């Protein structure tokens, strides 16, 4: 989902959620106050930051692929593996996407489903949007194809304000 209105959609936003496969970061939009010095800014929700452990293949499997000799030279004592990967990495990525989407859905539910913007790496953005709960997708204003989970707050304000 991207903004096509070309207008002031940033004015109506309430939350910016930056996510990747291992982290969810939540920023709240704070409008300018009555004081002329006070400007619109973003506030990071420190207790909303979620680190999700992304499992590696050695952590997920209990054994190595079988090793069988296959025409090795004389004196060469190791064999070559005939093991298959069976799309394990893809399944692990899907599981991480589901966990992140569920976490985002929980954050939005607690905030009473405000308008929000999603920032995630371009490689997972479409899949993450599809994995979101329906209520979260309905209030999604825009999405940004970039990993902003480590971005400084000042850079986030320059980008979104």
Please sum up the structure shown:
This protein is an alpha/beta fold and 161 residues long.
Radius of gyration: 22 Å
- Helix/strand-derived class? alpha/beta
Shape, per Cα inertia axes: globular
**Unreliable segments (pLDDT under 50, ≥5 consecutive)?**
1-12
Q: Can you count the helices? A: 5
CATH architecture descriptor name: 2-Layer Sandwich
Encode the helix/strand succession as letters. Answer: EEEEHEEHEHHEH
Classify the beta-strand content into a percent band. 15-25%
Number of distinct beta strands: 8
Mean pLDDT: 78
N-to-C span: 19 Å
CATH hierarchy class name? Alpha Beta
CATH topology: Nucleotidyltransferase, domain 5
Count up the domains: 1
Q: Which percent bin holds the helix content?
A: 25-40%
Sketch the major β-sheet: 6 strands, mixed
């Amino acid at each position: 989902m991207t903004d096509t209105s070309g207008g002031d959609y940033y004015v109506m936003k309430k939350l910016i959620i930056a996510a990747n496969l291992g982290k969810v970061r939540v920023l709240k939009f704070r409008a300018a106050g009555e004081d002329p010095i006070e400007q619109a800014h973003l506030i990071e929700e420190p207790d909303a930051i979620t680190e999700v452990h992304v499992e590696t293949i050695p952590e997920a499997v209990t054994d190595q692929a079988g090793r069988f000799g296959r025409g090795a030279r004389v004196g060469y004592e190791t064999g070559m593996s005939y093991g298959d990967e069976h799309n394990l990495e893809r399944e692990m990525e899907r599981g991480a996407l589901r966990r992140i989407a569920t976490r985002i859905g929980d954050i939005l539910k607690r905030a009473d489903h405000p308008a929000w913007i999603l920032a995630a790496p371009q490689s997972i953005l479409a899949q993450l949007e599809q994995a979101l709960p329906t209520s979260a997708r309905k209030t999604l204003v825009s999405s940004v194809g970039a990993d902003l989970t480590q971005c400084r707050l000042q850079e986030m304000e320059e980008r979104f304000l």
